[in-house]
Amino acid sequence: MNKPFHAILFSCTLILVQSCVTPRQEALPSSDPPLPSKYPNAEGAKSSALIGWREYFKDPNLTSLISTALQNNQELNILMQEIAVSKAEVRGRKGAIFPFLSFGGNAGVDKVGRYTREGAVEEGLEIKPEKRFPDPLTNFASAAEFEWEVDIWRKLRNERDASIKRYLATQEGRNFMITHLVAEIAESYYELLALDTQLTILKPMIQVQQDALKTVKMQKDAGKVTELAVKRFEAEVLKNQSHLFEVQQKITVMENRLNYLAGRYPQHIKRNSSGFEQRMLTNIRSGLPAELLRNRPDVRKAELELAATGLEVKAAAARFYPSVNISAALGLQSFTLSSAFDTPASLIYGAAANVAGPLINRSAIQAEYQGASAKQVSAIYAYQQAVLKAYIEVVNQLSEIRNLNQSYERKSEQVKVLSDSITIVGQLFNNARADYTEVLLTQRDALEARMDLVELKQKQLTAFVNAYKALGGGYSQGT
After folding, report:
1. Is residue 296 a contact partner of residue 160, using CB atoms and an 8 Å limit?
2. CA angle (116, 121, 125) in 5-degree steps
3. What are the structural domains, with CATH classification, of the chain?
4. Fewer beta carbons below 10 Å: N end or C end of the chain?
5. Omega before 129 cis (within 30°)?
6. Measured between alpha carbons, how far apart are the two ends of the chain, in Å?
7. What are phi and psi of 331, to 5 degrees?
8. CA atoms of 7 and 18, how far apart (whole Å)
């Protein structure tokens, strides 16, 4: 070998070595948050998240409403289009790995000046008359071209795999939205049943108070009570009648909310409110905290996004290495159309391989690599946060269920006592052994206790719904 060749070879080797140097990445925080082995004061039975929403919510009216919402909800449909965009990106990343093959043709005419280089060449050639260049010179060509970036550093494959992970993350995002939609519909549905029940409590109570008002008026005429007693009873009746209209308005608003979630215009919500105070959902089984990692869609989404950022860091690091590109072309070319297919005379072909790597001013590549590394660290923290949030939500909901169960038992006892008191105080009042204020206060306390009991039942059902959602249930039958 001669010295110039040695110098070229040394320069190329120096370029390749220099371009392969990548910045050192800082140590990453642990992506495996230590989860407790079990939930406090909870059984470790199989998680209720594995139960489908049709089986968990046995009310056919509610399951029909959820099914309608999963088909028509606009927000969910918008998300589906975003998933389609992510899927298209995956296809694009997959295609970048393989060679690009294109085919094309062209035709043109070119007239050069006689006193130009091209013109002088044409004039200077001794060509037989029948073989002279046409004037003006025409050109006909068709060729297939081949372009391929050889993915020796897995840059393109890592970018493809990262896009696949992000596509799968959008799917988990859809599942997460379904769990929220199912829970929101169930919560609103039970609130609607609670309002119906409050209405059924108010109407007979108003009738009882109106009967009491008539009795007080007769006693006032008999001189047993004063006008003050009549006014107090009348005010109590008017107060509860006013409350009746407030509840009716809340029912209208709640029905329209459910219709909105179902993606339809206002209409009556089919439901059966009878026996609401005795209604109960399937008992919640918490399972083990580790099950959250596979049952919670938001946790799986964060995990997939973390995996995607790791692949993107590798793809960004590969940009520091030399790239290898292979190109080739094969076709036909002639200055007359009649001879364009005269092979091998009109045959043209070529092939080339190109190796290039960044040497000077690599700041753009370094910035991309540092940005990808920062996103990876951010994704690790986001994953840890998702796991922590999931665990705390489950603990809170399980605790709320226990406390609401105890509270509901006590409130039920209070309602029973006050219901008995209404009968007793009515008898005493009719026998002039109790003051009218005692009747008013007893009726008021009994009504408030029953209304509170209905609200407690609604909160109890909502706690079961939210616990089911917190464990990761609600999407298995929504796909």
Report:
1. no
2. 150
3. 29-100+152-322+384-470 (1.20.1600.10)
4. N
5. no
6. 68
7. -170, -165
8. 16
Q: Which of 131-145, 340-354, 454-468 has the lowest mean pLDDT?
A: 131-145
Per residue in 110-160, pLDDT tens? Answer: 777 766 666 666 666 555 555 556 667 777 788 888 888 888 888 888 888
| C-alpha to C-alpha distance for 387 and 410, rounded to whole angstroms | 35
Q: Is the pLDDT of residue 15 over 60?
A: no
Describe the strand order of the beta sheet including 323-334 as a list of residue ranges: 100-110, 137-150, 323-334, 347-356
**Cα–Cα distance between 241 and 202 in angstroms, integer?**
8
Q: Is the bond preceding residue 266 a cis peptide, omega within 30 degrees?
A: no
pLDDT of residue 34: 76
Q: Minimal CA–CA distance to 31: which of 353, 280, 382? A: 382
Please tell me the distance from the alpha carbon of residue 262 to that of residue 254, in angstroms, as a whole number: 12
Q: 78 is written with which tokens?
A: 């918008």
* pLDDT at residue 456, rounded to an integer: 94
Query: What's the DSSP call for residue 131?
Result: G
Q: Which residues contact 393 (CB under 8 A, 6 or more apart)?
A: 466, 470
Q: pTM of this prediction?
A: 0.81
